[in-house]
Amino acid sequence: MGMRCEYCIDIGRRIKNAREERRMTQGELGRQFGVPFQMVQRWEQGGQLTIERIVAIAISLKLDPTWLITGQYGVKPELCRALSETSLRMDRAQSATDMMATMKVRDKLRRQIDPLLGVQPLSLSLCEVLRGLMPTITLASQF
Q1: Sign of the dihedral through C-alpha 87, 36, 72, 51
Q2: Which tens digit of pLDDT belongs to each residue from 16-40?
Q3: Has residue 63 been placed in a domain?
Q4: What is the pLDDT of residues 58-95, one digit of tens each?
Q5: Which of 20, 19, 86, 84 is CA-nearest to residue 53?
Q6: Using 50, 70 and 90 to split pLDDT, how confident is the model at 45?
Q7: What single DSSP character describes residue 121?
Q8: Which of 13, 39, 95, 113 maximizes the CB count within 10 A of its CB?
Q9: How many other CB atoms are there within 10 angstroms of residue 130's CB atom?
Q10: Is 50 part of a structural domain of the chain?
């Protein structure tokens, strides 16, 4: 289990408040993501979440992801939907090439969203790491 931090607890509190305002149970929210209600409990108690999961939760609860993270507003809904759709395409990728193309799109979206959320982007994207490993992955898949 990861460390709990103050802003994670704040995000969890906002998730819980928004869920309760919508008269939704933890189980109902969890089913939307294919996770048990205990996972939703962890989120609400300040468990660490990825930016993609926070955006997906915000969309599910019809919230601005910036508000969910910072308590302030700012990310355009179109960017949030695009990031969520990109995450779905990554889950459904049929090949390493598909995955890399989708990750490139996701990285481009993250470069637009992260500054609005006050998140420092990584200097080396996962896509760049995979691109470097691609010859090895391709060679290994031939065996």
Answers
A1: negative
A2: 999 999 999 999 999 998 999 999 9
A3: no
A4: 888 888 887 788 776 666 767 777 877 887 787 788 88
A5: 84
A6: very high
A7: P
A8: 113
A9: 15
A10: no
The rounded distance, in Å, linking the Cα atoms of 29 and 37 is 8
Give the whole-angstrom CA distance, residue 109 versus residue 6. Answer: 26
Q: Give the count of domains, the chain.
A: 1
Mean pLDDT value across residues 106-121: 73
Domain that holds residue 110: 75-143
Token pair for residue 40?
Answer: 């939703």
pLDDT value of residue 32: 92
First-to-final CA distance of the chain: 36
3-class secondary-structure state, position 93? coil
Model confidence, pTM: 0.54
Q: Is residue 37 part of a domain?
A: no
Residues 6+ apart with CB under 8 A from 43: 11, 12, 15, 49, 57
Distance CA 14, CA 33 (A): 18
Q: H helices of the chain, where?
A: 6-21, 26-33, 37-44, 51-60, 65-70, 77-91, 96-117, 126-141
Among the listed residues 45, 129, 54, the one whose alpha carbon sits nearest the alpha carbon of residue 37: 45
Nearest partner of 63 among 77, 47, 53, judged by Cα: 77
